[in-house]
Amino acid sequence: MIQRIQSIYLLIAAVISGGLTFIVSLWTNAKATTIFSMDLFSGVSMFEKMTPILFFISALLSLVTIFLFKNRQLQFVLGRLNILINLFLLVLLIYLSQTLSGEALVSEKGIGMFFPIIVILLLVIANKAIKKDEDLVKSVDRLR
């Protein structure tokens, strides 16, 4: 049900996690090489390879959550799980940006580093709307 406001928030979160992270750069290193999320698959550490996978899982989970509109409790739980995934992704991106080789020189962080924060905010707003719908349904059931 795309007409519900939480579906719009979840769709925007899915687009940011699934699409924009592969278009917008995460950072530019000291050699002026722009690093995208897909470039991290060729990294040497497990953390670098995990980053694009977590972006994809977050986008997929947001899309699945949209279509669970009949089960609001599960929708709420999946929203919280997605928030935790994005918090872990944010910590992972901060760790990677601080431990990159050549970070003693100045490097430029891209807007892609802030995408987990934006997605977390969208998911929190979506969860509030889901909770509001659940409370409304419970109040109507009480009146019967």
Automatic annotation (TrEMBL):
Which InterPro entries does the UniProt record give? Answer: DUF4293 (IPR025635)
Q: Which domain of life is it from?
A: Bacteria
- Annotated TM spans: 7-30, 50-69, 81-98, 110-130
Pfam families (UniProt xref): DUF4293
Does this UniProt record's set of keywords contain Hydrolase? no
Alphabetical keyword list: Membrane, Transmembrane, Transmembrane helix
Recorded protein name is DUF4293 domain-containing protein
Provenance organism: Tenacibaculum pelagium
